[in-house]
Write a structure and sequence with these properties.
The chain is α+β, with helices and mostly antiparallel strands and 122 residues long. The protein has a single domain, classed as Muramoyl-pentapeptide Carboxypeptidase, domain 2 (2-Layer Sandwich), CATH 3.30.1380. It is built from three helices and five strands, in the order αβαβαβββ. It is globular.
Length: 122
Protein backbone atom coordinates (compact mmCIF):
# COMPACT_ATOMS: atom_id res chain seq x y z
CA UNK A 1 0.00 0.00 0.00
CA UNK A 2 1.26 3.47 -0.78
CA UNK A 3 0.46 6.37 1.47
CA UNK A 4 0.10 10.02 0.64
CA UNK A 5 1.35 12.97 2.66
CA UNK A 6 -2.12 13.12 4.23
CA UNK A 7 -2.07 9.39 5.03
CA UNK A 8 0.72 8.36 7.35
CA UNK A 9 -0.24 4.70 7.45
CA UNK A 10 -3.21 2.50 6.74
CA UNK A 11 -4.86 3.60 9.98
CA UNK A 12 -3.53 7.08 10.70
CA UNK A 13 -3.72 10.37 8.85
CA UNK A 14 -1.66 13.50 9.41
CA UNK A 15 -4.78 15.48 10.35
CA UNK A 16 -5.29 13.27 13.44
CA UNK A 17 -2.04 14.65 14.88
CA UNK A 18 -2.73 18.32 14.06
CA UNK A 19 -2.62 21.00 16.73
CA UNK A 20 -6.15 21.61 18.02
CA UNK A 21 -5.83 25.41 17.80
CA UNK A 22 -6.13 25.35 14.01
CA UNK A 23 -2.63 26.69 13.30
CA UNK A 24 -2.02 23.80 10.85
CA UNK A 25 0.99 22.42 12.74
CA UNK A 26 0.55 18.72 11.92
CA UNK A 27 3.71 16.72 12.48
CA UNK A 28 4.39 13.30 13.98
CA UNK A 29 7.63 11.49 14.72
CA UNK A 30 8.17 8.25 12.77
CA UNK A 31 9.03 6.27 15.92
CA UNK A 32 5.86 7.49 17.63
CA UNK A 33 3.83 6.46 14.60
CA UNK A 34 5.40 2.98 14.73
CA UNK A 35 4.46 2.66 18.43
CA UNK A 36 0.87 3.66 17.68
CA UNK A 37 0.64 1.23 14.77
CA UNK A 38 1.84 -1.53 17.11
CA UNK A 39 -0.78 -0.55 19.73
CA UNK A 40 -3.52 -0.74 17.10
CA UNK A 41 -2.33 -4.17 15.96
CA UNK A 42 -1.95 -5.50 19.50
CA UNK A 43 -5.46 -4.51 20.58
CA UNK A 44 -6.97 -4.97 17.10
CA UNK A 45 -8.99 -1.82 17.71
CA UNK A 46 -9.04 1.76 16.45
CA UNK A 47 -6.74 4.25 18.19
CA UNK A 48 -7.98 7.82 18.58
CA UNK A 49 -5.44 10.61 18.95
CA UNK A 50 -7.01 12.97 21.49
CA UNK A 51 -3.97 15.26 21.41
CA UNK A 52 -1.06 15.07 19.00
CA UNK A 53 1.39 17.82 18.24
CA UNK A 54 0.89 21.28 19.72
CA UNK A 55 2.25 24.65 18.79
CA UNK A 56 3.91 26.48 21.70
CA UNK A 57 1.02 28.90 22.10
CA UNK A 58 -1.62 26.18 22.28
CA UNK A 59 0.55 24.13 24.65
CA UNK A 60 0.76 27.10 27.05
CA UNK A 61 -3.05 27.17 27.15
CA UNK A 62 -3.60 23.45 27.77
CA UNK A 63 -0.53 22.16 29.61
CA UNK A 64 1.29 22.91 32.83
CA UNK A 65 4.55 21.70 31.27
CA UNK A 66 6.88 24.00 29.38
CA UNK A 67 8.80 20.88 28.35
CA UNK A 68 5.82 19.10 26.77
CA UNK A 69 6.85 16.50 24.23
CA UNK A 70 3.71 17.38 22.24
CA UNK A 71 5.47 20.57 21.07
CA UNK A 72 8.24 18.41 19.58
CA UNK A 73 5.69 16.17 17.80
CA UNK A 74 6.99 13.13 19.68
CA UNK A 75 3.91 12.64 21.90
CA UNK A 76 0.28 11.65 21.64
CA UNK A 77 -2.58 11.22 24.07
CA UNK A 78 -4.59 8.23 22.90
CA UNK A 79 -7.72 6.21 23.49
CA UNK A 80 -8.15 2.67 22.18
CA UNK A 81 -11.73 1.70 21.38
CA UNK A 82 -13.08 -0.74 23.96
CA UNK A 83 -9.85 -0.79 25.98
CA UNK A 84 -9.27 0.97 29.30
CA UNK A 85 -6.50 3.55 29.46
CA UNK A 86 -4.92 1.46 32.24
CA UNK A 87 -4.72 -1.59 29.96
CA UNK A 88 -3.14 0.53 27.21
CA UNK A 89 -0.56 1.90 29.67
CA UNK A 90 0.11 -1.61 31.01
CA UNK A 91 0.81 -2.83 27.48
CA UNK A 92 3.08 0.11 26.65
CA UNK A 93 5.02 -0.26 29.91
CA UNK A 94 5.45 -3.98 29.28
CA UNK A 95 6.51 -3.53 25.66
CA UNK A 96 8.79 -0.53 26.29
CA UNK A 97 9.93 -1.02 29.89
CA UNK A 98 13.14 1.01 29.62
CA UNK A 99 11.95 3.58 27.12
CA UNK A 100 9.50 6.36 26.48
CA UNK A 101 7.23 8.55 28.52
CA UNK A 102 3.99 6.87 29.55
CA UNK A 103 1.38 8.78 31.47
CA UNK A 104 -1.74 7.27 33.00
CA UNK A 105 -4.91 9.34 32.98
CA UNK A 106 -8.55 8.45 33.65
CA UNK A 107 -9.70 8.97 30.05
CA UNK A 108 -6.55 8.54 27.94
CA UNK A 109 -2.98 7.29 27.88
CA UNK A 110 -0.02 9.52 27.07
CA UNK A 111 2.87 8.09 25.06
CA UNK A 112 5.99 9.94 23.99
CA UNK A 113 9.19 8.66 22.44
CA UNK A 114 11.67 10.76 24.42
CA UNK A 115 14.21 7.90 24.48
CA UNK A 116 14.31 7.43 28.26
CA UNK A 117 11.74 5.97 30.59
CA UNK A 118 9.40 8.33 32.41
CA UNK A 119 6.21 7.27 34.18
CA UNK A 120 3.48 9.32 35.87
CA UNK A 121 -0.19 9.49 36.75
CA UNK A 122 -2.25 12.51 35.82
Amino acid sequence: MTTTIKELSRNFSRSEFACKCGCEYAAVDAVLLDVLIEVRRYFDAPVTITSGCRCSEHNRRVSKSDASKHVLAIAADIQVKGVSPAAVADHLESKHSGLYGIGRYDRWTHIDVRGIAARWRG
